[in-house]
Specification:
Blueprint (H helix, E strand, L loop, with lengths): L5 H31 L6 H17 L6 H12 L5 H11 L6 H27 L9 H16 L3 H11 L6
Helix pairs in contact: 1-2, 2-6, 3-5, 3-6, 5-6
């Protein structure tokens, strides 16, 4: 068996980086969230989200869609879009006795998936009915659910990074 040369390994690594760089950066932010948290609340939700990001974003070809990341950024910043639904969801999943941090790591991804489904349905019915497949109505919420589950605890860091780079204007 012949082992690959350094040039072949480097070429494969470069091709992998060029194709999947958004997924890798998402995983880096997820790891930063693990390091920043001082307790174990929400680690399981983040791990499931990271696995879903690695599987579903490239599978549905959403990993290079800038509008997906913009929508996730704003949906992740919204604390409670539907307060009654958030209370029902935490009671249904057994998190009503847990602290607010654990409940928010579960609530934000589900609310983001529900809102993204509603917006995708609205756009599909009003604008894109003849141009895109209805399967997109399932792909967007699934990807949003896993992406927000992976990065919900570090949304604050994303907002801070944008503020420090000056994209929001002078602080």
């Amino acid at each position: 068996m012949q082992f690959p040369t350094d040039a072949k390994i480097e070429a494969h690594m470069l091709a992998g980086w060029k194709e999947y760089w958004p997924v890798l950066i998402t995983l880096i932010f997820t790891c930063l969230g693990w390091f920043a948290l001082s307790r174990n609340d929400g680690y399981f939700v983040q791990e499931i989200g990271a696995i879903g990001v690695v599987i579903f974003l490239p599978l549905f070809k959403m990993h290079k869609n800038i509008w997906f990341y913009v929508a996730a950024f704003f949906l992740g910043g919204a604390e409670e879009i539907w307060p009654k639904g958030a209370q029902w969801l935490t009671a249904f999943m057994g998190f009503e006795k847990e602290n607010a941090w654990t409940a928010s790591t579960v609530i934000i991804p589900f609310q983001g998936a529900a809102v993204s489904f509603g917006l995708a349905l609205l756009l599909y019915l009003c604008v894109f009915r003849s141009r895109v497949s209805a399967a997109l109505l399932l792909k967007i919420p699934i990807c949003m659910l896993f992406f927000l589950a992976a990065v919900a605890p570090v949304i604050f860091f994303l907002w801070l990074l944008i503020g420090l780079t000056g994209m929001l204007g002078p602080l």
